[in-house]
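Researcher: Sequence recovery benchmark, item below. Answer with residues only.
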């Protein structure tokens, strides 16, 4: 079976979250919630909740591809077919219970194509190809944007996207966080009912059956909206003490 490595990390309890946010020297991955808390001056500040780190898996390759549109293989220009997905990652720094934009973070994204294949993987017969891989450096607002496709599926895994947030070599302090993003099963059924996904057949695993998803993946499900030309999703990420 094509299984990713065993998951790592865990979900912290609320008591543990509060204890960690008051400690120093720890780097955590958090997600900024949509809720805000009022401040004394009438403004608002984002609250942050811990989300789990998940396995990198066997298919990460550092191709050093600085690009926003990751659909094509750079050597041929051939674009991988599939439903368009505009993915935005908002990366923040968490301190004193609030989030502020984290600029100059390197965000890597990689995932399989509509047929379930990863690029540059010998077992997939794709060595030398670099489709559906790339990184972006967050801007002053902590934003990294990618144009990709809705992922397909492969045996033994729910549908997912891998991502990594890491510091630049010139950063004053080094950090790296790796996890995965998931999709609502009903939405995946609708997308995969169309070509080029349909020809592969019905996927063999729902989110609830995926051992990696069950390590906290419910906190990593993308809120996907339909657009005029495909789908779009935004996900908030925060790192503590960076």
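Model:
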């Amino acid at each position: 079976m094509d299984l990713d490595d065993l998951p790592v990390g865990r979900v912290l309890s609320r008591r543990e979250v509060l204890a960690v946010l008051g400690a120093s020297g720890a780097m955590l991955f958090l997600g900024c919630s949509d809720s805000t808390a009022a401040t004394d001056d009438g403004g608002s500040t984002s609250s942050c909740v811990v989300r789990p780190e998940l396995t990198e898996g066997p298919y990460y390759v550092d191709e050093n591809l600085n690009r926003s549109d990751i659909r094509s293989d750079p050597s041929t220009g051939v674009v991988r077919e599939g439903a368009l997905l505009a993915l935005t990652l908002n990366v923040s720094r968490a301190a004193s219970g609030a989030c502020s934009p984290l600029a100059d973070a390197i965000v890597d994204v990689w995932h399989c194509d509509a047929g379930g294949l990863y690029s540059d993987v010998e077992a997939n017969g794709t060595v030398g190809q670099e489709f559906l891989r790339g990184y972006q450096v967050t801007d002053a607002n902590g934003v990294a944007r990618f144009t990709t496709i809705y992922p397909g599926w492969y045996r033994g895994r729910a549908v997912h996207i891998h991502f990594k947030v890491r510091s630049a070599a010139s950063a004053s302090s080094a950090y790296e966080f790796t996890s995965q993003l998931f999709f609502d099963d009903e939405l995946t059924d609708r997308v995969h009912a169309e070509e080029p996904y349909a020809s592969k057949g019905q996927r063999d695993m729902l989110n609830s059956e995926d051992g990696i998803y069950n390590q906290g993946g419910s906190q990593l499900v993308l809120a996907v909206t339909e657009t005029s030309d495909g789908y779009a999703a935004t996900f908030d990420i925060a790192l503590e003490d960076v």
